């Protein structure tokens, strides 16, 4: 557990790029006594979802236009940020700080020295690849000049028992005189959660080798079936206003927008299986791993997330007839389960299926972020 402050006053937290609130759910799950004093998000649909679940509407607008005076008003102890990842993704142009979508985060870094009371703690989440970018260099440079100590991680839900591969980069920063519990990891990039639980480096090396694919690691994960809705629940997904009855089924694998009214509408059309079967990642209820769901899941089938075989073939995989396996998309609720969102998380009825998948694809794993936040806020032995 994170230690409470002696005065029991909650930490005052600012949440930047709040989306549908994955960071806030992680903070709640971490057990840290904290209050989100404001959240910032440009996308009003995401703000609808956030408000629906937290009864608090984030400040809507471009983070780039915030000033040091604006931020001073909140008198926050910690800033949690999950800035756009497109400038750093391997599939993208990798323009890093040259990409306009990186500007708002660079602006925030610029503002820190101009605030009258800089935050004591910072938490940044991004895609793997961020750690080699010039934005990362800029961030570490700024934090070092301001007397922050950092510990960086690349971690995936697979390392926390969730059968879901979504490795992400995390930077944890504390301003002196605050310090981390495991100080020998200062200024290191770690690929195992060992130090979050006070385990030594040797264990970390083993776990690091185990990441992404080792049998040991996968065996410690729960099976995919634990994350599934029952057929009745899948059937009960709400239909949204203005959604078309049928998805358009383009030959390039792109699909249109809708909200399914029955389980059949999650089934992958045969035309897509014929055309894209070889590129599909297919998993079974007893599988111990599925692929990262991106914001294009359900619109495209290639490289956007796994599909579930609802009929178990005699021989698993592509050797057996895919059409007989009744492939279906995971529902948004199931994707939220893989992100370890709480059961009471829900989308307002008017949010379309495409929007649900897009916002979930942008979000983060509570199973990974909660222990990182607990570690960040925990106080070091003096
Ligand atoms: C990687 S997602 C973070 C998602 C969030 N952590 C969650 O759990 O849903 C980035 C978010 O930043 C928002 N965003 C991007 N640029 C922004 C800007 N300049 N100002 C405010 N929000 C921005 C996007 O709309 C998106 O929701």
UniProtKB/TrEMBL annotation:
Give the domain of life: Eukaryota
MF terms (GO), sorted A to Z:
methyltransferase activity
Q: Does the keyword Transferase apply?
A: yes
Q: Which GO terms describe its cellular component?
A: nucleus
Residue ranges the record marks as coiled coil: none
Show the NCBIfam families listed in the entry: dcm (TIGR00675)
Record-given protein name: Dna methyltransferase-2
